[in-house]
Design goal:
Blueprint: H1 2-31, H2 38-49, E1 53-55, E2 59-64, E3 82-92, H3 104-107, E4 125-133, E5 143-160, E6 180-197, E7 202-210, E8 219-227, E9 230-238, E10 241-243, E11 250-259, E12 262-271, E13 278-287, H4 294-297, E14 307-317, E15 322-333, E16 336-345, E17 355-366, H5 379-384, E18 411-422, E19 429-439, E20 442-452, E21 455-464, E22 487-499, H6 500-503, E23 513-527, H7 530-535, E24 538-551, H8 552-558, H9 562-571, E25 575-588, E26 591-601, E27 604-613, E28 618-627, E29 639-644, E30 648-652, H10 677-681, H11 689-701
Parallel strand pairs: 5-6, 17-18
Antiparallel strand pairs: 1-3, 2-3, 3-4, 4-5, 6-7, 6-10, 7-8, 8-9, 9-11, 11-12, 12-13, 13-14, 14-15, 15-16, 16-17, 18-19, 19-20, 20-21, 21-22, 22-23, 23-24, 24-25, 25-26, 26-27, 27-28, 28-29, 29-30
Helix pairs in contact: 8-9
Length: 702
């Protein structure tokens, strides 16, 4: 019995001692001046972060009962007070490694290898006040559970340098800690952000203010600065409390952003912002050209007229890769409608270029809206869409360089279709389709096909923007057209059963009717614009027009048959049967030389010789009309077509008089004629006018 009482007495003494120690510890904690611990805390935090850290203001600890929030416990746990920490005037300095990095301001002026090293004077962060409560029971499970972290009047200064280093990446611990941080919600009231990036040539500042009267949003923000040397402004709103743990609670966001003439408006939400797990927004974009979106998105898009588009943007954002979907969008490009869905993946985890996939369609596509794709619009339109007006006044072929340096920044696989393509007077193009693939800096159209004037056209086009190199870089590249590599281009075009009168509606008023046109073109070239590509082209172009009628008066005027012109005008015009029109050009270094160019009618055989220089845009053609019958006062003098594409000139050799009454030419120009045979085989039948003419030429060769 005595031993039992002794055990009870000892136990009571031990319990009283523990309670006394706890009470004494609690008393010390409640009355302790925590400012004395700041030197120790600053030293430990600086060591952990790998940069200077200091609490320069008051540091206080109080014990408070949790009154609200999803983390509030019930029962006896709810009666336990939680430690509440409040610290003022906190500074987080620049990392020591920044002393060996290239600052943004210097990188913009000098190459990274010669830039002057300079340590920025600003701290990374200055926080006027930070406060939070800590769940004491979670400490037993080695969890630092913070229900609400509040920042007041903070400022951040973030910088990225030309070598890719930055001042916001903190030192990583070499050992695995058993402790876990659980931060549930974040509140930011008032603050400033300054972001400088040498890679994107950005210098942007933002101001954040609290909203006390808005039911949906808790903060507003504005920003201004420069991106890639162009002015950028923006504003927006966001939720008051950022939930970092909830899987379902959306964080509302509304923003407007303008860079140059490009405007972006978004409104929607982010779910689980700690991981940016899901983005769901309504997106509206407008601007002077889709190509101007590249600095904001990094996605290569073509030059276009003014555009506007609206659609549904969703995204899954991971630590390494991001996946965006822009679905069911509609809009206009110039006067053309546009609709579709696009899918964009960053693919960094697989060390691949980003990939853009999708489908785009148009019901009515205006031909004028396609001109900026190849720089064929006017200089005034070029300036309007933000490019340099480089087209010389005496040149027809576009000289604006393609931005091939951007082709290697992304891969693409997009299907394009248009119900109808029209111009000022409707061009009979229907059902335009192509699959555009861009991979490793090479653009391929597989193929570009459409119905044209009752017939069918197909073009297989390959544009290799690597300049003969095998570059496969995913990094940001030089963005100046003058540094763009040359394009190695190949084009194979086939046209079958094209009806010329449908192709050129004005022929109906010129009393000219024709049958079908068949044509082939096979060209290869190296250059960086439409003009330079055509000016260096090699290959061949051939065409054939079978059957039809032509105005007799037109033939008489072409042959300068003065007497018959007078008689025709007195007695009236009539139609002359057009048996065949064929042309076969060889193309060498941009010069098209006519191997065969004939127009055969019942009245005359017209021979065209000479060349067309695509590099100089010069015409050097001679038209020799040879009548098949007797003509009154027939001069049959050659016509000379000279001058440039923009200013052609037609003149007559008045010194040449025909001494013969008629007779056809010897068809010497039909040798060789092999390139034209495939066009005959696709025609109506082998007994057509062109087939007969080619057979005559073959006999003449023998």
């Amino acid at each position: 019995m005595k031993s039992h009482k002794k055990i009870i007495r000892i136990s009571l003494i031990v319990l009283a001692t523990i309670v006394s120690l706890l009470a004494l510890s609690l008393l010390i904690l409640l009355n302790m001046d925590w400012n004395r611990a700041k030197p120790w805390l600053n030293e430990r935090a600086s060591e952990a972060l790998g940069r200077p850290f200091s609490i320069r203001g008051n540091l206080a600890l109080s014990w408070e009962k949790q009154l609200s929030g999803p983390e509030t416990a019930t029962g006896w746990r709810g009666r336990i007070p939680w430690p509440h920490l409040q610290a003022q005037d906190i500074h987080i300095g620049q990392p020591a490694t920044m002393s060996t990095s290239t600052p943004a301001s210097a990188a913009e002026k000098k190459p990274a290898s010669t830039a002057v090293t300079q340590l920025p004077a600003e701290d990374v962060a200055e926080i006027n006040e930070v406060s939070f409560s800590l769940n004491p029971l979670a400490l037993l499970d080695k969890r630092l559970e913070i229900p609400l972290l509040r920042f007041q009047n903070s400022s951040l200064s973030l910088q990225r340098f030309a070598d890719g280093s930055n001042n916001w990446t903190f030192k990583k611990s070499t050992s695995t800690s058993p402790w876990k941080l659980e931060l549930h919600r974040l509140v930011l009231s008032q603050g400033k952000l300054h972001f400088v990036d040498a890679i994107r040539h950005a210098d942007v500042s933002a101001d954040i203010e609290s909203l006390n009267t808005d039911a949906d949003y808790g903060i507003s923000w504005t920003l201004q600065g420069k991106l890639y040397g162009e002015k950028i402004t923006g504003s927006g709103k966001a939720g008051a409390i950022l939930s970092l743990q909830s899987q379902t609670q959306p964080f509302p966001i509304m923003a407007q952003l303008q860079m140059g003439q490009t405007k972006i408006d978004v409104e929607g939400s982010v779910t689980k912002p700690s991981e940016l797990a899901a983005v769901d927004m309504r997106l509206h974009i407008s601007g002077n050209s889709m190509a101007r979106l590249y600095p904001l998105t990094g996605i290569v898009l073509p030059e276009t007229p003014e555009f506007t588009t609206a659609g549904h943007l969703t995204a899954t954002l991971g630590k390494i890769d991001n996946h965006f979907k822009y679905e069911k969008f509609t809009g206009k490009v110039g006067s053309s409608d546009l609709a579709g869905s696009l899918d964009y993946q960053t693919r960094k985890a697989r060390k691949l270029r980003p990939l853009l996939q999708g489908n785009m369609s148009s019901q009515v596509l205006q031909s004028a809206d396609l001109a900026p794709l190849v720089g064929a619009d006017s200089n005034a339109n070029k300036l309007k869409r933000g490019t340099t007006a480089v087209q010389p006044g005496d040149k027809l072929l576009p000289v604006e360089a393609f931005r091939t340096e951007r082709w290697r920044s992304i891969d693409a696989d997009v299907n394009l279709s248009a119900g109808k393509l029209i111009r000022k007077k409707e061009l009979p193009i229907h059902k335009l389709q192509t699959r555009l693939i861009m991979k490793d800096g090479v653009i391929t159209m597989l193929p570009l096909s459409f119905e044209l004037a009752g017939g069918q056209m197909q073009a297989h086009i390959t544009l290799d923007g690597n300049g003969g190199t095998t570059k496969n870089s995913t990094s940001e590249l030089e963005d100046s057209p003058s540094h763009a590599p040359a394009i190695h281009a190949k084009m194979r075009v086939t046209a079958r059963h094209i009806q010329l009168q449908k192709l050129i509606p004005t022929l109906a008023t010129s009393k000219l009717t024709v049958g079908e046109i068949n044509a082939d073109a096979n060209l290869a070239a190296t250059g960086n614009s439409v003009a330079s590509l055509l000016g260096a082209a090699n290959g061949e172009v051939s065409s054939m027009l079978d059957h039809g009628t032509v105005s007799k008066l037109l033939l008489e005027e072409m042959g300068l048959n003065i007497g018959n012109i007078i008689l025709t005008r007195m007695a009236g015009d009539k139609q002359v049967r057009l048996n065949c029109m064929l042309s076969d050009f060889s193309v060498t270094n941009g010069e098209m030389n006519a191997r065969s160019f004939l127009i055969d009618t019942d009245e005359a055989l017209i021979e065209i010789t000479g060349s067309i220089n695509l590099q100089k845009e010069d015409l050097n053609l001679t038209i020799k009309p040879n009548s098949k019958g007797l003509r009154i006062l027939s001069l049959r003098a050659p016509l000379y077509v000279r001058g440039t594409f923009l200013h052609p000139n037609v003149s007559v050799d008045k010194g040449v008089l025909a001494l013969r009454a008629g007779g056809a030419i010897g068809l010497a120009l039909l040798s060789p004629f092999a390139a034209l045979l495939p066009l005959v085989n696709t025609g109506p039948d082998e007994s057509s006018g062109c087939a007969t003419l080619l057979k005559s030429g073959k006999k003449a060769e023998k």
